[in-house]
């Protein structure tokens, strides 16, 4: 069994097997890997003749065998793909559209005798990250090249996302790229859709962190306000409770941190403005806030000392740097932030 990165290296070296089985949670990544192979080894002029696809819920042993045995046309290779081949899962006794049961034992024997000009590709998609490679697939690992396609993370995810932006002719700076990858669900179909939205939203200008935030699913401003309010009261339990609730609802720690940092930045600006004699309406206009929200936040800012607001803002920046530069758990880092704000004066 190999990882996707190993498969990509073998393709770069023009190595191709007679049979591949792909499995993982991200169908988009699997499809992309298959398309890369097809584009590399099949002449586009004869693609319709030398690349055939079948639905794994309808295909039969006979269809697979006949397609694999048919000689390629004006090409050295033919690729036969069976997509969403759920018959590769354990306990699956699927029947084809013709009512014939898929004989996996027969298929596993056949793949050792595939014609040298044929590459048979099959894939199935895990329903969750907890799923493991089926015992059926494990038994034929070696007869076929099994490729485990895990979701991209860290540098691999950033590299892939940057590549997608470049393909679409859009530049994204390193800091914004890192932030985008830290808050996006690492499903490549979701990633691709969010990139398209971001490109349309920022047409003709550079992408900023605010743009990324604005296009993310709406977060509860009220929850962040309450969390910071409990920080002003030194109530660690209530603050942690809100943090846990936000994470439970699916909010990414990186975006929670950004919202807390943004709140302290606004509080500091409003507090300085208020202390220098600016009125609430003027401050609301300056910070682009609804007058009612501005009034609430000015009152909240006065629950902290100026020194505490500056210190808490620095703590947010330090935690952001810590998350980026170490392997610390994001949730643990946020809990540390909450605890550290409690001891500021």
From TrEMBL:
Give the EC number(s) under which this enzyme is classified.
2.7.7.7
Top enzyme class of this protein?
transferase
Spans through the membrane: none
Q: Which reaction does it catalyse?
A: DNA(n) + a 2'-deoxyribonucleoside 5'-triphosphate = DNA(n+1) + diphosphate
Domain DNA polymerase III delta N-terminal: from-to ranges: 20-149
The record ties this protein, via InterPro entries, to:
DNA_pol3_clamp-load_cplx_C, DNA_pol3_delta-like_C, DNA_pol3_delta_N, DNA_polIII_delta, P-loop_NTPase
User: Which branch of life, at top level?
Assistant: Bacteria
Record's keyword annotation contains Repeat: no
Name any one GO molecular function.
DNA-directed DNA polymerase activity
Q: Which residues form the DNA polymerase III delta subunit-like C-terminal domain?
A: 221-340
Q: Which UniProt keywords apply?
A: DNA replication, DNA-directed DNA polymerase, Nucleotidyltransferase, Transferase
SUPFAM superfamilies documented for this protein: P-loop containing nucleoside triphosphate hydrolases (SSF52540), post-AAA+ oligomerization domain-like (SSF48019)
Family classification: Belongs to the DNA polymerase HolA subunit family.
Q: What is this protein called?
A: DNA polymerase III subunit delta
Q: Origin organism of this chain?
A: Clostridium punense
């Amino acid at each position: 069994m190999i990882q996707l990165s190993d498969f990509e290296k073998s393709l770069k070296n023009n190595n191709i097997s007679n049979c591949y089985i792909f499995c993982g949670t991200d169908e988009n990544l699997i499809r992309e890997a298959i398309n890369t192979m097809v584009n590399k080894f099949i002449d586009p002029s004869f693609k319709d003749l030398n690349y055939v696809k079948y639905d794994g819920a309808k295909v039969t042993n006979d269809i697979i065998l006949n397609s694999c045995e048919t000689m390629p046309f004006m090409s050295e290779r033919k690729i036969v793909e069976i997509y969403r081949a759920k018959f590769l899962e354990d306990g699956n006794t699927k029947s084809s559209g013709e009512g014939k049961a898929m004989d996996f034992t027969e298929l596993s024997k056949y793949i050792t005798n595939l014609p040298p000009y044929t590459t048979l590709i099959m894939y199935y998609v895990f329903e969750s990250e907890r799923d493991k490679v089926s015992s059926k697939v494990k038994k034929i690992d070696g007869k076929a090249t099994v490729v485990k396609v895990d979701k991209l993370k860290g540098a691999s995810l950033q590299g892939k996302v940057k590549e997608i932006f470049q393909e679409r002719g859009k530049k994204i700076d390193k800091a914004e790229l890192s932030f985008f990858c830290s808050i996006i669900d690492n499903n490549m179909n979701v990633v691709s859709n969010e990139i398209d939205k971001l490109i349309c939203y920022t047409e003709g200008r550079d992408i900023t962190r605010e743009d990324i935030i604005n296009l993310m699913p709406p977060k509860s401003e009220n929850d962040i306000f309450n969390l910071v309010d409990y920080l002003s009261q030194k109530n660690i339990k209530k603050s942690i409770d809100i943090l846990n609730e936000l994470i439970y609802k699916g909010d990414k720690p990186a975006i929670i941190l950004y919202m807390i940092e943004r709140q302290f930045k606004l509080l500091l600006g409003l507090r300085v403005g208020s202390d220098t004699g600016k009125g609430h309406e003027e401050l609301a206009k300056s910070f682009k806030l609804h007058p009612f929200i501005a009034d609430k936040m000015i009152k909240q800012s006065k629950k902290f000392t100026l020194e505490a607001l500056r210190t808490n803002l620095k703590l947010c920046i330090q935690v952001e740097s810590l998350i980026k530069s170490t392997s610390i758990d994001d949730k643990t880092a946020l809990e540390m932030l909450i605890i550290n704000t409690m001891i500021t004066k």
